[in-house]
Amino acid sequence: MRRGLVLLLLLSSASLALAQGPKSTAKPAAHPAAPPYNAYVHTWHQPTPGHVAPVDASGKKKLVLMALNTQERVELSAEKDSGAFSAHELDRAAHLLREPSSGNEHPIEPRVLDAVYRIQVHFDAQEIRIISGYRTPHGGASNHGKGRAIDVVVPGATDDDVAKFAREMGFMGVGIYPQSGFVHVDVRERSYFWIDSSGPGKKNRERGILGDVASRADAAALARGEHGLGALSVGTDVDALLRQASPGGPSLQNPPPALLDDDTDEP
């Protein structure tokens, strides 16, 4: 999260400088102050006037991801109302969600993309704006390093409302960052929710919250026939894995159990 925000602020400041045009040879009276961080946060949360999410030939909304760091945008076609993306679309998403500073990519977990799609559809958002996707692991246990987590901004929706909806899905990690201005979402074996009141570039001040809500969300998901995410496994034929439908057998919909990853260094 820290690396992504620092790069994002540098790029935003550079864009503002370019917009001001060539510098005058006259000595300025004073250097203009950089916009405060909350001005960037406010802009990220504002919808673009006149823009709506595109739809496919059947009228189903597409998932639109826009990376704030690189300003890249991708439109992804879902196969179901709940999501479900082909291997080709998952590859396109993984490229956009790469680590900007290194260019490193990692396969994206299909379920986290489904979760983000459900968020976009629920809030009728024109797109999902990405603060951070994949991050190269540096000895921690972050789900960002496993392709299971995305830090998002939903234009037109408050972070509180986004977090509240995401918590209801079940088997989710949901962290809200009121000072930094985004919501972290990941998929895991058992739900865990938190709030981090630290600001950009500051030491994490994570505090777990709403344990009872997490338990109820997972129980409701189990009642719907859903299961938590088990051990990390990346196959070469994602389409074949998605077509597996043997009840009780290993699949992306019914993974084997695994130890809980509390992501103590999240995000």
Mean pLDDT: 83
Structural class: alpha+beta
Radius of gyration: 19 Å
* Share in helix: 25-40%
Strand/helix succession: HHEEHHEEHEEEEHH
Shape: globular
Count of DSSP-assigned helices: 7
Structure description:
By secondary structure, the protein is α+β, with helices and mostly antiparallel strands. The protein has a domain at 52-237. 29% of the residues lie in helices and 15% in strands. It has seven helices and eight strands. It has an eight-stranded mixed β-sheet. The radius of gyration is 19 Å and the shape is globular. The relative contact order is 0.13. Mean pLDDT is 83; it is low at 14-21 and 233-265.
Summarize the structure.
29% of the residues lie in helices and 15% in strands.
